[in-house]
Amino acid sequence: MNKEEYIEKAEEELVHTYNRYPLVLDRGEGVYLYDTDGNKYLDFAAGIAVQAFGYGKKEYNDALKNQIDKVMHTSNFYYNVPTIQAAERILRASGMDRVFFTNSGAEAIEGAIKSAKKYAYTRDGHAGHEIISMNHSFHGRTIGAVSITGNEHYREPFEPLMPGVKFAEFNNLESVKALITDKTCAIIFEPVQGEGGIYPATEEFMKGVRELCDEHDILLILDEIQCGMGRTGEMFAWQNYGVKPDIMTSAKALGCGVPVGAFLMTEHVAEKSLAPGDHGTTYGGNPFIGAAVNTVLELMEKEKITDHVKEIAPYLEKRLDELVTKYDFLTARRGMGLMQGLVCEMPVSKVSAEALKEGLIVITAGANVLRFVPPLIIEKEHVDEMIEKLSKVFDKMKPELFKVAK
Ligand SMILES: Cc1ncc(COP(=O)(O)O)c(C=O)c1O
Question: Against a cut of 0.90, is the pTM above it?
């Protein structure tokens, strides 16, 4: 079948939940993807912040193949070695005390919500607790996760959702303070908001919320699903701020392509939280998943991935800043490490569509932010190649389309 036929068939078969780009991707190598027509694309999206090592990493692929030949799944009625090893590594990397492996990011969020509610239930002897989340946040598409997602558009069709959720202004401590009641059991946010437009938390906000939580025995949940796993130059973004959450979530690059998520908690939370019968999943933490997570973490440690991010990210920032200076329709760059956004005075979906024609994969975050979440292994030459391709796109697009307003 040719590309058009594949696309036509997909549009007939799959539930129409995505407006996809007209691209049928076939294979990957390093930081490049190839479509079924053999066209090559420089990938600055990494499958939405997933493929930390890019594509075709031999040690990772070999570890998965070995585990497939040994055993893939046994159920959570029994222990398995790869998951015990993976747990040890993620606890060491995060400084948390306990971990539960899930099948996705949204499911990790569900687990985090349940953990917080159970903690408050045990402490107070009754249910009915509330959660404070942030406007413009994104935590996933399941009912619990969408209930705490600060985007009306995602929530409205599915109401009534989980009750007891309030939304504060991100990076506005007073707005959080105003929502706290004696029912509040948790405050949740992304240390760097991803889908909401690449907004890092300010240090003042991060530390201020931590203090509020300590004052009121409220649990701080940090969602590291997009910003975690080395992307900001520390293993988890919150480690840049010198505060620690009570519960955190991870996913995406945790599996580097194998579907896995995790929620982690301190021992203090675990003592009052989930007990046998409270939570479970068939696939979560099976030997195959364990091997994937264990290998990802082992390779990140061995290859000092966070050092590499610290080294390369300032170069990406510098080159993106040059674009902001050069093009009037670009109004700002913001982000942390290899999670960067360029703010455009026009709908950026057109930019990312045009970029494909230049052989560049770059995605969006909201209507006017171009999002850069490349594989963590990129080098300066890849940054230069990306800037060259993107500049061609910007040069080609007529300035009047951008309604210049700088
Ligand atoms: C910050 C954040 N939380 C949660 C999720 C949901 O993860 P998943 O798509 O694996 O369910 C995402 C996905 O983009 C995310 O960026």
Answer: yes
Predicted pLDDT at 405: 43
* Nearest atom of ligand 1 to the alpha carbon of 193: 1
- Residue 264 Cβ inside 6 Å of ligand 1? The answer reads no
What are the residue ranges spanned by the domains of the chain? 3-56+304-401, 71-302
What atom of ligand 1 comes closest to residue 190's alpha carbon?
1
- From the CA of 143, how far away is ligand 1's center (Å)? 13
- Which CATH number applies to 71-302: 3.30.70.1350, 3.40.50.1400, 3.40.640.10, 3.40.50.2300? 3.40.640.10
CA distance 78 to 110: 23
Give the dihedral sign, CA 351/354/355/361. Answer: positive
What atom in ligand 1 is closest to the CA of residue 48? 14
**For 3-56+304-401, CATH number?**
3.90.1150.10
| Residue range 196-239, pLDDT digits in tens | 999 999 999 999 999 999 999 999 999 999 999 999 999 999 99
Cβ of 137 below 6 Å from ligand 1: no
Nearest to 340 by CA among 315, 317, 314: 317
Q: From 101, 133, 139, give the residue whose CB has the most ligand 1 atoms within 8 Å, as the site to mutate.
A: 139
Contact 222, 189 (CB under 8 A): yes
CB atoms within 10 A of CB 271: 12
The tokens of 78 are what? Answer: 């029994």
The reply to whether 71-302 shares the fold of 3-56+304-401 is no
State pLDDT tens for residues 69-124. Answer: 999 999 999 999 999 999 999 999 999 999 999 999 999 999 999 999 999 999 99
